[in-house]
Amino acid sequence: MEGKKVVCFEVEPWEQEFLRDKLQHKVDLEFFNHRLTYDNMHEAAQADYIVSFIYSDLSHQVLIHLRKVKGIATMSVGVDHIDLVEASSRNIVVSNVPAYGPNTVAEHTVALLLAMSRKIVESVERTKEGIYEYTGLSGWDLLGKTLGIVGTGKIGAHVARITNGFGMKLIGFDPHPNTELTEKYGMEYMSLPELLGKADVITIHVPLTAENKHMLSTKQFELMKKGVVLLNTARGGLVDADALLEALENGTVSQAGIDVLEDEGLLKEEKEFFSPYFKLKDYQMAMADHALMRHPHVLLTPHNAFNSKESMHNILTTTVENIEGMVSGDPVNVVEK
Questions:
Q1: Long-range pairs for 186-190 at CB < 8 Å and ≥24 separation?
Q2: In the CATH scheme, what is the code of domain 5-100+309-328?
Q3: What is the DSSP annotation of 109-155?
Q4: Residues 156, 125: Cα–Cα separation, whole Å
Q5: Where in the sequence numbering do the catalytic residues fall?
Q6: Which class does domain 102-300 fall in?
Q7: Closest by Cα among 202, 196, 200, 236 to 219
Q8: pTM, 2 dp
Q9: What is the pLDDT of residues 206-240, one digit of tens each?
Q10: Which of 42, 52, 149, 243 has the fewest Cβ atoms surrounding its Cβ within 10 A?
């Protein structure tokens, strides 16, 4: 393994320490706590392998300049920040972290739901102002409400397990129904349009692909019950931000709990607005996302659903295994291209 250079982006000091402890005697490591972009891609020019999170740009315009790269280890489940076609054409191995903590994301999803249903944030803010008064803070019960789970894989299954304990009625949409969820929790599977029309609360747990981008847009919001609650801890691109804003304004969506925005990279590094590679549509998308951040009926967290001590340890452990596998010629957790 000696002599192979691994360049790591988006790694905090404690993560660097973990990776250094596990890999420093096996590969040549270099760390950056910022994300990889077109403008700083020279930092990865000598990399045999790249480690990054979802904010790094591993699109075609970056990868074509990184001619030495043999493998990419993303510290995430999602790979939509990587040009898999370019990677495949050059036999670049792409490995992800397929299951770092599905319960972690599910718990955050339910935390958003509980916070909205019982007006937790508003209650805390009021008491911090010295107002110990509950008038205007009436919430609503989860018991008896219908929860529509879009995507019943590992994370969706944990959401079903938790919310079944609250006495919610579970309905689901998934091309591959999980019969165990039906047997254990009474999950009723149906088409997506049917689910959208029946659910009091809708939660999304699917990966983002070219085919399902904006799977919830104007047409889908028109199918929903008036006053529906929407949860998205998956990927921002699954929901059309403009359509969601419109649905919030006309009352179709009464509350939205969101942990992901469509172009988080731009919002994380706003100086990117001045890049020559910045496109008008990116600006418009980011502005819509900013409007969601300010909306009084939106509870927004900064892509934090994955962020527990346990899941971060799992992510780093799997990333080490992915790098070791790539360098040894026996890659694991390889993403199919």
A1: 187/149, 187/152, 187/160
A2: 3.40.50.720
A3: HHHHHHHHHTTHHHHHHHHHTT----TT------TTPEEEEE--SHH
A4: 31
A5: 235, 264, 303
A6: alpha beta
A7: 196
A8: 0.84
A9: 988 889 999 999 999 999 999 999 999 999 999 99
A10: 42
